[in-house]
Design a protein that fits this description.
alpha+beta, about 180 residues, about 30% strand, 5 helices, Aminopeptidase
Length: about 180
């Protein structure tokens, strides 16, 4: 059994649901209430467009689970409410395994949040979904994204599927 939310040192990772995605698209106040968190005015991150959310909804509603994603809530040191700072998750890859994606609001970048969240999501995926590898695509100029992947054990494997992208991969190494 894998308990949710996933807890890290500074965050909670809340599984995205159809309801949460619909709130994200249409009711920011409702999303804040459902997550019990503050939703900054700069939400969502640049890569999380309404088209992306609609595609995730389509996959989730199809019944054959092909997407597992999480809202990232930072837990402030003081008594302030949690803050929605990013999201990330996995798509089932056509080549087997999973494809990783993640995004953090600019205000919370360069603070280790993505590294921390990706580490926890990868541990969860290898344990709960019992897959053997995870791939991630990025661009060579996105140095911070590459560092997140490298800090989590991903290695460069070559060009990505879209022009100008590169691929990183992490293989599951089960304990013997």
């Amino acid at each position: 059994m894998h308990a949710f939310p996933i807890r890290t040192e500074r965050m909670e990772l809340i599984p995205a649901t159809v309801k949460l995605y619909l709130l994200d698209l249409h009711d920011r106040t409702g999303l804040a209430t459902a997550l019990n968190a503050s939703v900054p005015g700069e939400w969502p991150p640049e890569q999380i467009t309404s088209e992306v959310i609609e595609e995730f909804l389509k996959l989730m509603r199809a019944g054959d689970r092909k997407v597992w994603s999480f809202y990232w809530l930072a837990q402030p040191d003081d008594c302030d409410p949690n803050v929605l700072i990013g999201s990330g998750g996995f798509l089932a890859s056509a080549k087997g395994g999973l494809e990783l994606g993640y995004s953090v609001l600019p205000t919370y970048q360069q603070q280790g949040y993505a590294t921390e969240a990706v580490r926890s999501m990868v541990e969860w995926a290898f344990s709960a979904l019992r897959i053997d590898h995870i791939i991630a695509y990025t661009y060579p100029h996105l140095i911070a994204s590459i560092r997140v992947l490298e800090k989590n054990g991903f290695t460069f494997t070559g060009n990505g599927p879209e022009e100008g992208t590169i691929t990183y991969e992490l293989r599951n190494r089960p304990e013997n």
